[in-house]
Design brief:
The complex is a heterodimer of chains A (296) and B (375). Chain A is built from six helices and 19 strands. Chain A is globular and about 60 Å long. Helices cover 20% and strands 28% of the residues of chain A. Chain B is of the alpha/beta class and 375 residues long. Chain B is built from ten helices and 16 strands. In chain B, the strands form two sheets. In chain B, strands 1, 2, 4, 5, 6, 7, 10, 11, 12, 13, 14, 15 and 16 form a 13-stranded mixed sheet that branches. A three-stranded antiparallel sheet of chain B has the order 3-8-9. In chain B, helix 3 links the parallel strand 5 and strand 6. Classes of the chains: A alpha/beta (296), B alpha/beta (375). Chains A and B meet through helix 6 and strand 12 of A and loops of B.
């Protein structure tokens, strides 16, 4: 395992292509980013003009259940920007949020330490504001990102899809320019079935070596950061509803487990600390849960 | 009442099962901190013994109305015949004491068309209460809430008896014990654990299994073993995602996990109504049939071995292919829900013999004793 990147503490901002509205203040959003065309209307308000064309545009995160589609797997299709964040963005991201996805988009950017704006309409301002307040309330967590796998990204769409599947299977990776001996496995992009690729990588790594495992949901994606005395698990629920229970396994002994959940109180349950690993359950997983573990 | 003495059934002609070889089986890792009881409930005190109580008037094949009084008598007679006791209270106490906390494992996967009949379940609960168990200490359980609700058990059960489902959603794991599970990687799925229904390890001291008499597209038939195994663990459908399933070994492996194996002390198979094709569901009315019987035992393997014959005989009478037919010529070549000569998977009725090999009961028909009772 190896950790080089620190998860940035910057909170995602809100991009608004609309005139000032009391609804924003009611949503707890004090400052926004706006296009130049709105500058006049926002005079006297806390607003920063940005040029959308200079930002890296990303789609809304979410899930497609594909109930009526013939397919090789019954797993829902998670639409995550994680692979794009892992690859590294040119400048700030502008994430489309669509109806109901602003909170998840903000959480995703936070989990991946991305510098991002979330573009959202009035329907989503309240959810965005609530998520931003939740993110701001979290204890500091600037810890190195942890991974088992080094991924030699060649910048191709194949590599992007490979990373997508590693991410969806919670096979923790980071992009490397050359093989990193400190990581358990280093892999190159491989064309073909990305799901088969992910399984091949998993077999090379082997499950017992995985720094993190998740049981009970196919729509929750985890990020892990940590140092010698702490671990932080960020859990993103890409589904359309609260997940009723996940079990998390983290390598190492971490007897102190504290969960912070977006929008509700969730406590870690059934904590089991063994020599090799620590396990705990979260009875509910809303859009975003952060769990801090420590040695004491 | 017509009663015949215990019969020893002659061994049937060998059936070609072409089951998977041992070396082909998935690698299972069982995680459980529970030690087996001195005498595990399966196969229990009566390995190889099965009592079959048939009452032609127990169910009306036209209306599906069940005669509750007759069912009560069937259960009473079945318990006496199984145990050899003279009174029902003593017969029940061979398995369950007044201070026990009892789980009744329902079968609701095909509910409401086919399920452990509420009249049968209610009568079991009544007889448990009569034997001294407090109603509040009886819980009828199943995995999925929507299925349980559709069967309307509370309308039939004695006051105070609980009905409980492990999860309200398909992917919910809160109702399962995080410390007791079977871990296996069938096809590269990331969630490799199947956890035990939580009250089995944390609350129930005894379990009564009440399966139906059903055909099953993946396992060949579904009776005692599959109901107690797949109905007591999470994340089991992954075993039959592809044409070649892992039901052959997974069912017995799960059923043998402690404390499930030790605490499941009685099997009462509800065969008032059965399904001879398309199970565990009843996709078409014509796939339902009415054996009008209940089977009793402590040995799930012996009971399921007899179930194979019941389903096979009915399928033969209906002109359907055998449950032992493993030819891929029939797999997904038509609409399984309509055509009894189409299989959804390669069926694995050999899962019963496999479970016998794990010590869960007697598979060899020559060693099974069947007591027939007709009411």
């Amino acid at each position: 395992m190896s950790g080089l990147l620190l998860l940035a503490a910057a909170l995602p901002g809100l991009f608004v292509d609309a005139d000032p509205s009391p609804a924003l203040r009611e949503a707890g959003v004090e400052c926004v980013a706006i296009p130049a065309a709105r500058a006049e209307a926002w005079k006297g308000h806390c607003a920063t003009v940005v040029d959308p064309s200079a930002l890296t545009k990303l789609p809304a995160p979410g899930v497609r259940y594909r109930m009526n589609e013939a397919r090789a797997s019954s797993a829902p299709w998670v639409d995550s920007n994680g692979a794009r964040f892992a690859r590294g963005l040119q400048g700030k991201a502008l994430i489309a949020s669509g109806d109901g996805k602003a909170a998840l988009a903000a959480a995703e950017a936070h989990a991946f330490g991305a510098d991002a704006l979330v573009s959202s309409g009035p329907k989503d301002w309240k959810a965005f504001g609530a998520m931003r307040q939740f993110l701001a309330s979290l204890p500091a967590g600037d810890l190195p990102v942890l991974a088992n796998i080094g991924f030699l990204d060649d910048g191709t769409p194949v590599a992007n899809e490979n990373m997508n599947l590693l991410l969806r299977r919670n096979l923790l990776f980071r992009v490397v320019g050359k093989p990193d001996a400190k990581l358990d496995v280093n892999v190159k992009p491989k064309p073909g079935d990305p799901s088969a690729f992910a399984y091949e990588v998993r077999q090379k790594l082997t499950d017992p070596k995985r720094l993190l495992r998740l049981y009970g949901s196919e729509v929750v994606v985890a990020r892990l950061s940590g140092d010698a005395t702490r671990r932080r698990v960020a859990l993103l629920n890409y589904g359309n509803r609260v997940v009723e229970g996940v079990r998390v396994r983290i390598l190492g002994r971490w007897p102190r487990v504290i969960a912070y959940a977006f929008g509700e109180k969730v406590e870690a349950a059934d904590v089991v600390v063994e020599a090799a690993a620590t396990e705990f359950s979260l009875p509910r997983v809303p859009a975003y849960v952060v769990v801090d573990l420590s040695t004491r | 009442m017509q009663r015949r003495d215990f019969l020893t059934i002659p061994a049937a002609a060998a059936v070609a099962m072409a089951a998977p070889k041992t070396e082909e089986l998935p690698k299972y890792r069982v995680q459980s901190s529970y030690a087996p009881a001195a005498q595990p409930g399966m196969p229990g005190p009566f390995p190889g013994r099965v009592v079959n109580v048939h009452a032609a008037n127990s169910i009306n094949a036209s209306t599906e109305k069940v005669d509750a009084a007759l069912v009560a008598e069937m259960i009473g007679q079945g318990m006496l015949a199984l145990t050899g006791e003279k009174d029902e209270r003593t017969a029940w106490r061979r398995f369950i004491q007044p201070n026990d906390v009892v789980g009744i494992k329902l079968n609701c996967s095909g509910a409401p068309k086919i399920c452990s009949h509420p009249v049968v379940v209610a009568e079991i609960a009544k007889q448990l209460i009569a034997s001294g168990v407090a109603a509040k200490n009886i819980t009828c359980y199943e995995r999925f809430q929507d299925q349980v609700v559709s069967a309307k058990y509370p309308d039939y059960l004695p006051a105070g008896v609980n009905v409980w489902a492990a999860s309200s959603g398909r992917d919910a794991i809160n109702g399962y014990d995080p410390r007791t599970y079977v871990e296996v990687d069938f096809f590269g799925e990331d969630d490799t654990r199947s956890n035990l229904v939580r009250p089995i390890s944390e609350r129930f001291t005894k379990i009564i299994n009440v399966p139906n008499m059903k055909d099953h597209g993946a396992s060949g038939v579904t009776g005692c073993l599959k109901n107690i195994a797949y109905g007591s663990f999470h994340n089991v459908a992954r075993s039959h995602r592809f044409e070649k399933t892992n039901t052959f070994s997974f069912i017995g492996t799960l059923a043998a996990v402690e404390p499930l194996r030790s605490r499941t002390v009685l099997q009462i198979m509800d065969g008032l109504k059965g399904v001879w094709h398309g199970g565990p569901f009843q996709h078409a009315d014509r796939f339902g049939f009415y054996p009008a019987r209940l089977m009793f035992g402590t040995d799930p393997v012996a009971m399921d071995r007899l179930l194979i014959d019941i389903i096979e005989e009915k399928r033969k009478a209906e002109g359907a292919i055998s449950v032992f037919n493993r030819s891929t010529d029939y797999v997904k070549k038509g609409d399984f829900r309509k055509d009894p000569n189409t299989n959804n998977f390669i069926r694995e009725p050999g899962h019963i013999e496999f479970a016998g090999g794990l010590g869960l009961g007697v598979f060899d028909k020559a060693k099974i004793t069947l007591k027939e009772i007709r009411l």
